[in-house]
Write a structure and sequence with these properties.
homodimer, mainly alpha, 2 domains, two-stranded antiparallel sheet
Chain lengths: 145, 145
DNA sequence: ATATCACCTAAAGCTGGCTTTAGGCCAAGA
DNA sequence: TCTTGGCCTAAAGCCAGCTTTAGGTGATAT
């Protein structure tokens, strides 16, 4: 059992944010001891799921919906399964998007590295759009698909 | 040369957003023809960089800063290089974060798949936290680091 | 006894990134 | 001729996700 301050420290999440999550209904099982929140293993587990769903791009109210499904029991297994499948697809897409951005960023690092070394981007800019060294050409092309 | 409407369609970005970017100074070289914006290859290129930097988590005003550096010429190569290096690191970190979330999501898909099939999460929840099938155990462990 | 600390609430405030609104210009087609 | 469509501006509005503020409680340390 933990206090809000301990959880805040453990997860590096502000106390105000934990209170906000609670107010939004993300800890449906949370108990209190004379007004003070008690975070049990259930809430710690919930917090891990919250962080995961939030990273996946889900909004707070949809996370609340999920928590409600948990309270409703086995009848909502299909909804919960579907939710995780959708979030999985969303995260896979987002990773792909970031990987594309990463390629362009790597290309730009190479480009400005050369520009700094040569004092000018002239030579290197003349290699665009398809006369770049193979490795770099790949990054450049990936970055603009 | 493109009109704002054509660029909007090509990039699937609302016209209002393109005007907003322009107002925020993200297209320092943009020209006008009797008041109407003309998007040249320069602006198309800029837009790709904007999308990339935005994906990397950069704020609009910092993107504007970058565009200003471009206008200032070769003296700002080092700043630009440093910016791209930092964004690269940030994106790599973000991908790692998403990969962790993805592991937990995959685990949850497996979990609820079993729960749906068996009509109960009882059996499967008893395998926690370290009696899961090897493949799944890996996902579960990755998901909570 | 008093001050400090960690907790509590309700409500207001903030921020970034757009989007919407209200009003206007100009060119082409019916 | 008139109306439709695409362009323009400035300014107001919107939203999620917090964070801050103002005011309060109760336990422990000096």
């Amino acid at each position: 059992m933990f206090t809000i301050g301990q959880v805040s420290e453990q997860f590096n999440i502000p106390v105000s944010t934990l209170r906000y999550y609670d107010k939004e209904g993300l800890f449906p099982y949370m108990e209190r001891q004379s007004g003070i929140r008690r975070f049990s293993e259930t809430e710690i587990e919930a917090l891990r799921v919250i962080e995961c769903l939030k990273a996946s791009g889900l909004e707070i109210k949809e996370i609340k919906q999920f928590m409600q499904w948990c309270v409703e029991g086995s009848a909502t297994y299909p909804q919960r399964r579907q939710l995780f499948e959708k979030r999985r697809a969303a995260v896979e897409q987002e990773i792909a998007r970031l990987q594309k951005a990463l390629s362009l960023l790597k290309f730009k690092c190479w480009y400005y590295d050369a520009a700094v070394k040569e004092g000018s981007e002239e030579r290197v800019s003349k290699m665009l759009p398809d006369k770049l060294p193979p490795e770099i050409q790949k990054l450049y092309d990936e970055g603009r698909q």
